[in-house]
Design goal:
Number of helices: 11
Number of strands: 14
Bound molecules: uridine-5'-diphosphate-4-deoxy-4-fluoro-alpha-D-galactose
Structural class: alpha/beta
Distance between the termini: 39 Å
Radius of gyration: 19 Å
Strand content: 15-25%
Helix content: 40-55%
Mean pLDDT: 96
């Protein structure tokens, strides 16, 4: 039985595929390379020395998707396909809603048709909007998202809850990611944003590499220890391992729909990140203080206890690993 990974050539999809293959799982990837490159597939094979089946298709293409289910014995689906740029989602809401929500619906309908009912969904801490309490537990209220990207995650979570209510033979894990950073230690796969990065770590790395002049720190007047925004940065390999644990739960437990925060439970500010990066790599990161970025919140970090108790998962990698692995990756792709 195979695990279908949608968006398997993407940042989190590729790292999760590596972990699945390392666990001896059979994997089928679909990807349309909307925000990824075909070379990533070879890198996954190079890292794992294992093979997998690949289809270059768009998950909105129902006919082609059905063919994948016909040609393979799929046990479970991990859905990493989807657009993820917050700013872009504000400019292109229809594209975001169509791709993320319609894509998820087509995928779920196809799963239903082929009686595949184990689903792991990439959600985001963004569904908590302005967090009710810090650290954020899974019981905190969701809603109040400030952009179509975040709203698409919120809607899909609701769709999954409704689906489970209508048919309790589904097994669903909703994983709410905090801030994924870092790269595989081989330096072969990592995050490769197209154009100028929006997220902090890819930006820091490019400033250190001399590709961008300086980092703009978006606000130093937040109510935090140094005035800059605080987030829960989690190494992408830890995140990937969380998916394996969620899959194992769906395989062994009774039916259910489960929600987990995947974070470290520790918050670092923008300036903490700059300092940690400089210490970990010996590289200088030039920055200036700029105004706040609209839609940003002051503090967001998880309470990751539920995942520890129920999945036996917790983040292992340090902030130093996150910085060094991000740096190693960009050094390799620069060559
Ligand atoms: N930041 C800067 N300068 C930059 C980029 C970011 O100061 O050039 C700051 C932000 O203001 C924020 C922190 O760095 O305080 C982290 O910002 P990111 O853009 O890296 O991440 P966000 O927390 O804004 O958003 C991320 C993901 C979203 C997801 C959200 C969940 O990008 O997809 O976490 O909380 F929805």
């Amino acid at each position: 039985m195979a695990i279908l990974v949608t968006g398997g050539a993407g940042y989190i999809g590729s790292h999760t595929t590596v972990e699945l293959l390392n666990e001896g799982r059979e994997v089928v990837i679909i990807d349309n390379f909307a925000n990824s490159k075909p070379e990533v597939l070879d890198k996954i094979k190079e890292i794992t020395k294992k093979d997998f089946k690949f289809y270059q298709i768009d998950y909105l293409d129902k006919e082609k998707l059905e063919k994948v289910f016909e040609e393979n014995k799929i046990e479970a689906v991990m859905n990493f396909a989807g657009y993820k740029a917050v700013g872009e989602s504000v400019k292109k809401p229809l594209e975001y809603y169509e791709n993320n929500i319609s894509g998820a619906i087509v995928l779920l309908q196809t799963m239903q048709k082929y009686n595949v009912k184990k689903f792991i969904f990439s959600s985001s801490a963004t569904v908590y909007g302005e967090p009710e309490t810090i650290p954020i537990t899974e019981n905190c209220k969701t809603g109040g998202t400030t952009n179509p990207y975040g709203t698409s995650k919120l809607f899909i979570e609701q769709i999954l809850q409704d689906l489970y209510k209508s048919d309790s033979t589904w097994d669903i894990a909703i994983l709410r990611y905090f801030n994924p950073v870092g790269a595989h230690k081989s330096g072969l796969i990592g995050e490769e944003p197209q154009g100028i990065p929006n997220n902090l770590m890819p930006y820091i790395v490019r400033v250190a590499a001399g590709q961008l002049e300086q980092l703009s720190v978006f606000g130093n007047d937040y109510d935090t220890h140094d005035g800059t925004g605080v987030r829960d940065y989690i190494h992408v390999v830890d995140l990937a391992k969380g998916h394996i644990k969620a899959l194992e739960k769906l395989e062994k437990e009774e039916k259910g729909i489960f929600v987990y925060n995947l974070g470290t439970g520790v918050g670092y500010s923008v300036l903490d990140m700059v300092k940690a990066f400089e210490e970990a790599t010996g590289e200088k990161v030039k920055y200036k203080i700029d105004c706040r970025r609209p839609g940003d919140i002051a503090i967001c970090y998880s309470n990751p206890k539920k995942a520890k108790q129920e999945l036996g998962w917790e983040a292992q990698k340090t902030l130093k690993d996150m910085c060094q692995d991000s740096w190693r990756y960009i050094q390799k792709i620069k060559k």
